[in-house]
Amino acid sequence: MGSATREALVASRKALGALADNDALAAGQQLFEAGRVIGESAQLRSMLADASVAATDKAALIDRLFVSLGSPARTLLAGMVALRWSHHDQLLAGIEEIGIRAVARSAPSGLSIEDEVFSFGAAVSSDPELELAVGSKLGSNAAKSALVTALLKGKASEQTLAIVNHLVQQPRGRRIGGLVRTAASIVADEAGLAVATVTSASPISTAQLDRLRTGLSKSYGRQLEVNLVVDPSIVGGIRVQVGDDVIDGSISTRINALRLTIAS
What pLDDT, in 10s, does the model give residues 133-156? Predict the structure, then answer.
């Protein structure tokens, strides 16, 4: 991520802070819709991320193209394209992030969207046919949206449904595991938390997870939510990922490292 993008995200998050909570869900969903439209046109992405194009011209284009958006979403989007981004793909990622944060802000107290998003990802990743159905480039967005709605309707919050619906329609080259990790991390960050993904060869007790959560929270200086993935392929030990940090104590990694040492 370039420095221009980092600065643009800081400014975009600050602008989101002015959004009224009762506008947040609709604004987030509308940003998702706009992001998908922009994502389908390389010319539009390039123009909106071009620093040489006047901000007023970009705002006028947003008003023409997205007249159906509510004022809060259109204002956020116009503000984002007026900023400088390191690459047009990072503008697209930024629109997605602010959309996710807006949707997360609309969640009622006590609702853990990151847990719901992560659970969906774990369920899909454990079923190859389902993963293919939601991740295939050949499937239509309408079909993917219908499948996600059928899977989550009545079982997850409308916030989670909105986020997952968008992710499967615009994966941007990411597999479902990467999609849900990114989304869960953004949701947790919006709530002032962080997410640790713990991968183990076998289930871990609640007491062990609590001890791990406490230790990781102390190490990172903030409260962490812990999501557990059971993956027998790592043989033994655990792998912990917090953002870009990976602590890998799995036996499979040690075996692979030993193989490389022997082969060298």
Answer: 888 888 888 999 999 999 998 899
Burial of 205 (0-12, 13-18, 19+ CB in 10 A): exposed
Q: E strand or H helix at 231, and its extent? A: none
* Cα 8 from chain centre: 18
Q: What residue type is assigned to position 85 of the chain?
A: W
Q: What is the pLDDT of residues 186-235, one digit of tens each?
A: 998 888 887 788 888 888 888 888 888 888 888 888 888 787 888 888 77
Residues in the chain, overall count: 264
**pTM given for the model:** 0.80
CB neighbour burial string for 38-64, b if at least 16 within 10 angstroms, e if fewer: bbeeeeebebbbeeeeeeeebbebbee
Please state the φ and ψ torsions of residue 230, each to the nearest 5 degrees.
-95, 120
Spell 140-156 as b/e; 16+ CB within 10 A means b: eeeebbebbeebbeeeb
Cβ count within 10 A of residue 36: 16
